Amino acid sequence: MKLKARQDVIIKMMTEAAALLPEATITFYTIATAKPDARPALSKALGKIEQEADDHFLKLIRKVATTFITPYDRDDLYRMLETLDDIIDSLDHAGQLIVDFDMAALPPAFVANAKELVGMSEVACEAVDLIKKPNKMEKALYEINRHENALDLGYRKVLADSLKPGSDPIEALKLKTLADAVENAASLIEDFTRTLSVAAIKEA
Q1: Which long-range contacts (CB under 8 A, 24 or more apart) does 58-62 make?
Q2: Whole-angstrom Cα distance, residue 113 to residue 136?
Q3: What is the pLDDT of residues 98-114, one digit of tens each?
Q4: Which domains does the chain have, with CATH numbers?
Q5: Which DSSP state fits 68?
Q6: Would the pLDDT of 13 be above 90?
Q7: Do residues 89 and 120 lie in contact, with contact meaning Cβ atoms separated by under 8 Å?
Q8: What DSSP state is assigned to residue 163?
């Protein structure tokens, strides 16, 4: 019973940590769509989410390390936790860059990608609850891939539009840096969900 209780605690903590993912992407999207003078406060809010995610990460790492038999493969758990932490770190970094770059408005294609990131993170968060239902995990992976494909199209559009003849090279560099950060976050969310899928298959 004690072993089962410890395993349940890990699952609960994992669910709580994953819930920060949509919260972080929604805040990032809000920064991307906000007026410049509203962005610093929103960036601070994202920073607080990142700090909370760090706290969850450290507590979970300790719990996994001190639990003799974990609910899922230990290496998979470590990879999921590290990836989750990296996603929110990446979003926090990108949010700070939006503030630091002090751009009047971000292009529609970039904003659309930020919104896709929200949808992607919501699917990833829901997938945590599907780890005991591997047959349903396939649908989550399909949705993740759909969002990823849309993000890839948006990424190319951001680059193509920013590098049109006559474009300001400094502004183009800023946009590419931000677009790369969003693309990296999307890749990490995909990796997180795939690791969940692998853990689900192992537990089946």
Answers
A1: 59/13, 60/10, 60/13, 60/14, 60/17
A2: 26
A3: 999 998 889 999 999 99
A4: 2-203 (1.20.58.220)
A5: S
A6: no
A7: no
A8: T
